[in-house]
# Entry
Amino acid sequence: MAGLALKDVRKQYGKVEVIKGIDLDVADGEFVVFVGPSGCGKSTLLRMIAGLEEISSGTLSIGGRVVNDLSPKERGIAMVFQSYALYPHKTVYDNMAFGLQLAKAPTSEIDAKVKRAAGILHMEHLLDRKPSQLSGGQRQRVAIGRAIVRNPEVFLFDEPLSNLDAALRVTMRAELSKLHRDLGATMIYVTHDQVEAMTLADKIVVLEAGVVQQAGTPLQLYHNPQNRFVAGFIGSPKMNFIPVEIAEAGSGGVTVASADLARTLIPVAPDAAVAGAKAVLGIRPEHVTGGDRPVTFKGRVELVERLGHQTVVEVATAGGATVTALLDGTTLVRPGETLTLGFDPADAHLFGESGRAMERFHLPEIARMTRRTAA
Amino acid sequence: MSFRKSDNASAWSMLAPAFLLIGLFIVVPFALSVIFAFTDQRLVPNPNITTKFVGVRNFERLFDGDTFSNAFLRTATFVILVVPLQCAMGLGAAMLINTTLPVRNVFRGIYFLPTVISMVVVSVVWASLFQMEGFFNAALRAASFGLLEPVDWLANPWTAMPSLVLMSAWQGFPFQMVVYLAGLQGISKDLYEAARIDGATRWQEFRHITIPALRNTHILVVMTTTILAFKLFTQVQLLTQGGPRGVTDTLVRYIYMTGFREGKVGLAAAAAVLFFLLVFAISLVQRRLLKEERAIQ
Ligand SMILES: Nc1ncnc2c1ncn2[C@@H]1O[C@H](COP(=O)(O)OP(=O)(O)O)[C@@H](O)[C@H]1O
Ligand SMILES: [Mg+2]
# Structure
């Protein structure tokens, strides 16, 4: 088993830099998820770790050993592809055994390892089939089985669940989580699905345009995003952003005001905030509720989506902001009505002009824990 | 679904031109050659002797002399030599083109040139390469530091056939290349990456991924190439006229000589019927092989 260390890792395609200097430590046995919008470089970074893509500069070490110049096979990794990449003319057994067969391992050893992996994934009855005779979920299992047989120090997954239907995705997600607990191996998992990221990760790494925006536990990212990008990316529906002006900044917090909001004290460290500067207030839809909260504002209802247990309401304020609120499923509202909404300033985030978040004073205890201590 | 009568009538009237052309140029000539094969039809009929039905005598006569058997054996030799060579060249060139090299489109054009040049022109060019003072003898002299005597490639019974094989493969391989290229482009890149992670060498990737993935392409290419090779005629007629000592005689040339030079249309038709059966048998084998694959999938 082994951890990983990336030091100023970069990737250029010709003149275009797609990975722009990544520093990252992955602890032994950690489940790390790379998330980010499409095209931000998640797959490229994963493939650089796998050795399928050359590292333009910087160093990558696995288990304390610099592996920049090693072939994929020598890095002690295994990879599960989005397309599964099963060898179509080989049986499930041979798909899993291929690496060991190439390494000329004794037949008895190959057999034991393949049978063990098949047992872990409950697919002993599929060993004689060809990939074309399997369902999507079964192919996925074979791909994971092939990785297990390699007995790698690091598992790499590139959007492994994105070709499965919603129900199967939930099942496989749980199984992957269990697999990680059982094997105790380091896993790096790429996805653009933040639910997968939140549920699977010990540590989430949010990437944007080849740069790490923030790395931390899922709840750190949720409660304490360090910038607007992470704040908007983690959480669904997206966090609301309301442009405000700073009225006063002191050690007790920052007082802001806008066309829609009366002067409100947000409990955050003022950093370099000065009165008169522009800022952006962030508040999650789940923290925007009825008009009985400390801070209220009015808006015209534009959209109502009823999910049964909850109602998503989108309102347009007089000041020109659009705010989404997650209200109770039985709330009686209709488009066109004027609605008074409110929130608690303790739940709010404040971002300076550069997009950097100001440190929040009140963080829930759970946001300070690692996944293992919280679980 | 049911059609009204008038629909049927208009459908038939629209199909009629196609049926007429197919009938006139494919069905009738085919039927005629089968009929002629059992008669003593001559190219220039003698008004005093009517054409008679002769049963299987034409077929017996084909196997009486050794000209036909010789032509068959020589053609088969050509096929056995040229098919592997041409297919391998096609696959090799396709794999070169299928890389991500930026110049691959230029290569694609260059490789395809030989096929668009008429075999007649190719034969003339290669005839000069095969001359006593031509390129191949110059190359032979240079490679052996002048020790080896020049060879009269097309007149020497040992080298005439290999020379034809080489030239034919060169002229024909772009066809195989295009088909293989289509096959190669259907193989997912992920498979090669998975194999690299499994520790496969380039050769093992080729053997365990490329070759099996091209199974149906192989069948198609080998069968079509075989049929095309059996039709060998133009280059032989232009370069060796079947010589030296009949080592480059071919089935089609036999049919041509018997029918047009000797005027024995009946005999030529019998040879053509056998030739047809041979090609038909190859097609059946191909169908069988492709069907089995579909059943597996
Ligand atoms: N082989 C390549 N050549 C040039 N650009 C590439 C190549 N592969 C990926 N890119 C670019 O790198 C960026 C990151 O791609 P990728 O890692 O696949 O993104 P993600 O997996 O996050 O969606 C994209 O802008 C993509 O266009
Ligand atoms: Mg990707």
About this structure: The mean pLDDT of chain B is 86.
